[in-house]
Amino acid sequence: MLRGMSSLRQSWWVVLGVLVTACGGQAKNTKVPELPSGSRGDIAIREQCEGGEARALDANADGRADWRQVYRDGRLRCVQADLNFDGKVDVTRFFASDGESILREEHDFDFDGKVDQITYYENGEAVRRELDTNFDNRIDTWVWCRSNLLERTERDRRHGGRTDTWEFFNQGLIVEARYDENNDGEPDRIEHFENGLLKRIEFARPGGEPIVEEVPPEVAGRPERVLTCDGSPAPGGGSTPASEAPPSGEAPSSSLAPSQPQEVSP
Ligand SMILES: [Ca+2]
Ligand SMILES: [Ca+2]
Ligand SMILES: [Ca+2]
Ligand SMILES: [Ca+2]
Known about the structure:
The chain is mainly beta. The protein contains one helix and 15 strands.
């Protein structure tokens, strides 16, 4: 059971890794992807991709635009890319009024025309991420990050339409996980970790003190690892908290720059 919880925690992260890998395929663009439900971001920003001065580019020189840039007052505010040349936008990047600072990025990893991940940036660093890990067009994982290390997550593990798991991290290493096992919207099982090892579990009891169960090291399973915001390997191997600040989270390098693009009419 304990190990089951541990593997559950890491399983969605493996999903993210698969998503990122899937993106590595190729890049065309006419249709803008749908946003999944459950996103907590400001969707007004999507207007940045409309109007303005649009430039369309043809990255694979097949005579069809697969790349679109939208400028306002001479500054770049939106880039849309069709990475697999199927006519649907797969990556959209939004920029602040300076035309350089990235604000938000949307990815459609499985090329079905629906956004699967939204990443929010502050000062060039990814600070928040929303994922639809099972591709049902509903966000099920909300992630908060600092210096590319996990800080906090909320997850809808059962894909029932509401949060049932809350996790808290210290420099990417889990310290507490709360689960709503009986599906009443409130956590009723709280796991406490020390140095990544499960130490104690509290079971909530209606109208009474929680039952606390100490977890002996021999049944605690393997220690959790440091988790990064972008799924990349943690600094220092990831088995202990990072002792120094890791490189700040850079924008995912989803090869947003077409090689030798040829301009075509928007
Ligand atoms: Ca596409
Ligand atoms: Ca999708
Ligand atoms: Ca989902
Ligand atoms: Ca509950």
